[in-house]
Amino acid sequence: MSATGEVSSQEYIQHHLTFWASGHQGGFWTWHIDSLLFSVGLGVLFLWLFRSVGKKATTGVPGKLQCVIEMIVEFVDSSVKETFHGRNKLIAPLALTIFVWVFMMNFMDMIPVDWLPQVAALIAGDHNQHLRVVPTADLNVTFSLALGVFGLIIYYSIKIKGISGFVKELTLQPFNVKAMIPVNFVLESVTLIAKPISLALRLFGNLYAGELIFILIALMYGANVAIAALGVTLHLGWLIFHILVITLQAFIFMMLTIVYLSMAHEDH
């Protein structure tokens, strides 16, 4: 499928915003196969890449790839040391995994919107084959990541403070008065639940908007020469700006995870 007049603009946009799904599109048991393939595939690529570089690492002059990975590891490690105030050997590897994995999923937005869907259509022999290549533009993926972090928040809150301490945190803050327990519980519950929701929606919103803008710019290529030239200029400008967006969103997701887990380790 292309934006050269063979389909309407609405059909073109709808095609690129439709997932390759199993079952009824939008149903509860629908699996977004493209999101699963790209997210899991990029996760495996991340593990393989860092493991292979780690095994070949030398104490001498590092190669370019080893140098880049060492810079990333040192950056994440310093971020954890500055932000996390407890003691937990899991936090640094978790932060590294989140930052690199989310960045790699975000980076898929830098691939021209028609390339991989057209390859998928050729392989499937169906020009209507759907394929979305940015996992973090799928709310299911961002909520899955956020729920994983939320589970760790609950786990460490109970592990560090105990069940009674965790219950007291929900019922005796911010007002340490028994009569205010219902109010405290509502306020603290909303604050607790808002953490994974904010993580998921922030990442999804930014990447969905970025994906949509690339699709709208791609529509301009099928217009006259002047508009197509403007589309190329806009595409390059948005591409450069979007590099900052995808990096920043990976960093924010990582930092908020560290902050939330640091709060979970605070024993009052």
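(ticket continues) Second input and output from the same batch:
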Amino acid sequence: MDKNIITFNDIFKSSFIEKTSSFSLTDSLLGLLSAFLLGLFVYAVYKKTFNGVIYSHSFNISLMIMSMATALVIMGISLNVLLSLGMVGALSIVRFRTPIKDPMDLVYLFWSIIIGILCGAGFILLSVIGSISIGIVLIVFANKITVQNPYLVVVKFNSEATGQEIETILKENSKKFSLKSKSMMMTNETEATYEVRVKENDSEIINSIARVKGVSSAVMLSYDGNFTA
């Protein structure tokens, strides 16, 4: 038989089909399903432990989708070395430009990416154990441990006597306070900024300051930028 004869199978032979048949459909579905379930776990933990001002449902959904997308990428590049090099080059031009104000949001982003990497690489059990451990730590620290953060009190007043009365109120109604800055305005007003550690997160202190004669403005805010009054 002549070896140079081209058969019907040779004509329709496709490298794309060969590459498609080289991966396991069962393993791929298992990896994606694991990434989805663990991403759903991250979703639940983030929703339970969130203590900011405005809860972003879209950001929470993106955490779950990021786990699945990362798992898909890892499964793809593990089958082909050239594809992995191309994927690295493509991802290097991606820039994440959404501002992240809370450092904990970065923790959840990194957690979601790690879940995708482990599930895509086949380390599903390790991903489950690690996710459960991280989730327990986050829930315990978010709900059981209370940390009293300092506040900034920014007051505008028109006389030194008013300033002394403000400091008397701060001394009587806070655990500790200190003057951070003091400046004179063009309208002959004084703007003073105090660092205050209030008693049991009581924001009533700002109402007492606002009622002082000579005070034109009183604002109380936490160090993370969340207004409390």
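Agent notes: Residues 10-14, 225-229 have pLDDT under 50 and may be disordered. The CA atoms of residues 174 and 198 lie 4 Å apart. Closing as not reproducible unless the customer responds.
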